[in-house]
Amino acid sequence: MIELRDLCYVRLGTRDLAAAERFGTEIVGLQPIRRSPDRLYLRSNYRDHSLCYFRGEASDQAVGIELKDWNGLDGAMRELAAAGRTVKRGSREECADRAVEDFCWFADPTGNRIELVVRPHDANRRYFPTRDAGIKGFGHIGLNTADAKRDERFWTTLFNIRVSDWIGAAPLLRMTNVHHQLALFPAKAPGVQHINHQVHDVDDIMRSWYFLQERQVKVVFGPGRHATSGGYFLYFEGHQGMVFEYSNADRTIIEDDATHRPRQFPMEAASFCVWGSKPDIAEFRS
Ligand SMILES: [Fe+2]
What we know:
Helices cover 20% and strands 38% of the residues. By secondary structure, the protein is α/β, with parallel strands linked by helices. It has two domains: 4-120, 2,3-Dihydroxybiphenyl 1,2-Dioxygenase, domain 1 (Roll), CATH 3.10.180.10; 135-284, Roll (2,3-Dihydroxybiphenyl 1,2-Dioxygenase, domain 1), CATH 3.10.180.10. The chain has a nine-stranded mixed β-sheet with strand order 14-15-16-13-9-12-11-10-17, covered by helices on one side. The radius of gyration is 18 Å and the shape is globular. The two termini are 32 Å apart. The structure holds fe (ii) ion. The site of fe (ii) ion (FE2) has 5 residues, from strand 9 and strand 13.
C-alpha cells in the first residue's frame, strides 16, 4: 500500500505561456512566482506552486501527488513495478523544475502521467495574489478515465485512496478526510478534466460569478451546490479549454473512514447540482 499525503501540483503544456499567465493570474486569481521563457509557476497556498505551465503540447499533462513517507520513494517504486507499471525516477534537473527533493513517475492504466513526489518545497513567502478570488488553495482534480471500474480498483488497492461517493460510473476519491481530491470521469483520452481551487465561502463564488460574467469568461456550470460534498461551486472555461472550478467542498469532512458509506448517485444534472443548474461539461452528462 502506497501512502499518499495530498495533491501537490498540476503541470500543463502550452504553446502560449503569456495567455496562460493572463488567465491564471487576472481571471483565476493565482500568484505568478517564477517565469522563464518556457516555464510559468503559479501559487495558490502554502506550497511553492500548485500549477506549472511549460512550453509543450496542450495534451502533455502531469499530476503531482505527495508521498506520506519522505523516505518511501524506493518502496513506492517497487510496489508500482510489482503492479506492472513502468516507473521512472526524476533527474536532478527534473526535481528542480518541480521544486521537489525527489520524485518518480508512472502512467495510470488510462495513461495519465502521475508523479509521486517527496519533500515538495513550501512557499517562503505567503500567497498574495493580485485578484482576491478568496482562494484557500488547490483542492482537487477531475481526471479522465478510459475504464472507471478498472481505474478505481487501481487507485483504491495500490494506494490509501477511498471512495467517498459515485455519480454514475464516476468515483469521487479521497486520500485525506476531505470529500474528494480525485474524481475519475469517463472520457476518450487521458488528461486532466478540471482543476478545482477551494475558496473561503459562497460569497467568493458569487463574487466570481459576477466578475467572470463582466469579463465574458464562459461559465460552464453553476453557480450551484453539489449533492455529494454539499459544497457551493462555479465552473468556467480557461486557457486551452481547461475547466477551472471554485468550490468550498472541503468543508464537508469524512468524519469516520471506517463507517463512511459511499453513496451511489445517478448520472444526471441533479446529482451534480441540487439547485437545478445544468452542466455544459461533456463528462458530467454521460
Ligand atoms: Fe470538482
